Amino acid sequence: MPKCSKSEKIEDALLWECPVGEIFSNTSDYKSSLIALTAHNWLLRISATTGKILEKIYLSSYCKFRYLSWDTPQEVIAVKSAQNKGSAVARQAGIQQPVLLYLAVFRVLPFSLVGILEINKKIFGNITDATLSHGILIVMYSSGLVRLYSFQAITEQFMQQKLDLGCACRWGGTTGTVGEAPFGIPCNIKITDTPPLLFEVSSLESAFQIGGHPWHYIITPNKKKQKGVFHICALKDNSLAKNGIQEMECCSLESDWIYFHPDASGRIIHVGPNQVKVLKLSEIENNSSRHQISEDFVILANREKNKNENLTVTASGRVVKKTFNLLDDDPEQETFKIVDYEDELDLLSVVAVTQIDAEGKAHLDFHCNEYGTLLKSIPLVESWDVTYSHEVYFDRDLVLHIEQKPNRVFSCYVYQMICDTGEEEETINRSC
Q1: 361-380 pLDDT per residue, tens
Q2: How far apart are CA 6 and CA 9, in angstroms?
Q3: Which of 19, 127, 311, 349 sits at a 20 to 30 Å CA gap from 47?
Q4: Is 18 exposed, middle or buried (0-12, 13-18, 19+ CB in 10 A)?
Q5: Is residue 427 pLDDT above 50, yes or no?
């Protein structure tokens, strides 16, 4: 396989592993891999143990791909392009670009192409964004409207030609190899008519989450004054769950966020600057048709409370009471930045950051997913600048920290956890 040049910038990355018991024709499919997207539209599959490039796929030259995400974890990867805003001259002339963005979809076990989907405003109207989640195409509008469509139904109805990576293809009068430069991957899924609508709802900033058992969804009422208020409703009849209005009492620059737990337990994770709430969805006693929200456990940031923090003594001895309080996400206090879940180890990982002098220090905490108990804390060696964009991924024994600096300069820090036999023996002795 060709190697990536030293000047190539990694835009985004994911980690996937082969499940036990699967049989693949390609031996490289058995290797734990990093999926990386470069600045020049190359999708790389890299061995997580050796760093060797196992597969290199050129996506296209007709758009700029920028984002990687799991659709269904460990099964499908969606690569989303940057939004097509057209040239400045076209915008000044009032000419709108009909194609908003593209979604390239791949299966990972084994790694294969599903296709590239075109999101066209002529079909969906004046949409602002689109994404793929759990086999559902979700499109969003500036009004806050969110609409859901079946991705499987779309591929079955609108796929123009099935494409296979590495195979010869004739497209638009040009012949090339799918996934190789300069041919790349043609856009083979073009929606020519509005697909059947599954569901629609209105939410502030088009924020929408779906999950739970049975299906529920989370929205914020479409009013600015409701920002930070979340409603949890049943999908079948839009009824609000008991205690389904969740609002975290916090004063911070950054909003708290909420989502369904990725462990398929039907629970909900609500994250604020100084606490992580894990909520459970359960039937109301003697009323199986309705459900209620209750607290499962809470993880709190490590903060010392100073009883006299609002009092200041002047040089003359006069006591002055402050008329303001620190924000809950004040950088000098330990603040939660990222919460993730590792399915194989069944652990919640929480990144906490504290600004110390001129630089920030972060640590990654592992909590029991069932009870929230702190099991281990790992300090990150590199400093954490809160003004930069950060992503942290945890998968079994690997931790990735991706930092985006100004001018789209990325740094990637990789940690591999190893078993400390001395620590293991000490743990065994304590438990005896």
Answers
A1: 999 999 999 999 999 999 99
A2: 8
A3: 349
A4: middle
A5: no
Q: Model confidence over 261-285: pLDDT tens digits? A: 988 899 999 999 999 999 999 999 8
Closest residue by Cα to residue 154 from 113, 117, 125 = 117
H or E segment and range at residue 375? strand 374-379
d(C-alpha 383, C-alpha 261), whole Å: 29
Q: What is the mean pLDDT of the chain?
A: 85
- Res 320 pLDDT > 70: no
Q: DSSP states of 172-199 as a string? A: TTEEEETTSTTT-----EE--SPPPP-E
The answer to whether residues 101 and 80 touch, using CB atoms and an 8 Å cutoff, is: yes
Region of poorest pLDDT, from 52-61, 243-252, 374-383: 243-252
Q: Are 190 and 158 in contact (CB under 8 A)?
A: yes
Amino acid sitting at position 162: K
Spatial distance between the Cα atoms of 377 and 351, rounded to a whole number of angstroms: 10
Sheet holding 145-150, edge to edge: 127-133, 136-141, 145-150, 199-202
Q: Cα Rg for the chain, rounded, in angstroms? A: 24
- pTM for the model stands at 0.75
Q: How far is CA 53 from CA 32, 226, 263, 397, 399, in A?
A: 12, 48, 30, 20, 19
Distance CA 69, CA 76 (A): 9
Residue range 130-149, pLDDT digits in tens: 999 888 999 999 999 999 99
Contacts of 132 (CB under 8 A, 6+ apart): 69, 71, 76, 78, 103, 105, 138, 151
Report whether 14 contacts 400 (CB < 8 A).
no
pLDDT band at 417 (very low <50, low <70, confident <90, very high): confident
Degrees to nearest 5, angle at CA 415 with 360 and 370: 85
3-class DSSP string for 220-249: CCCCHHHCCEEEEEECCCCCEEEEEEEECC
Which helix or strand (DSSP H or E) is residue 300 part of? strand 287-300
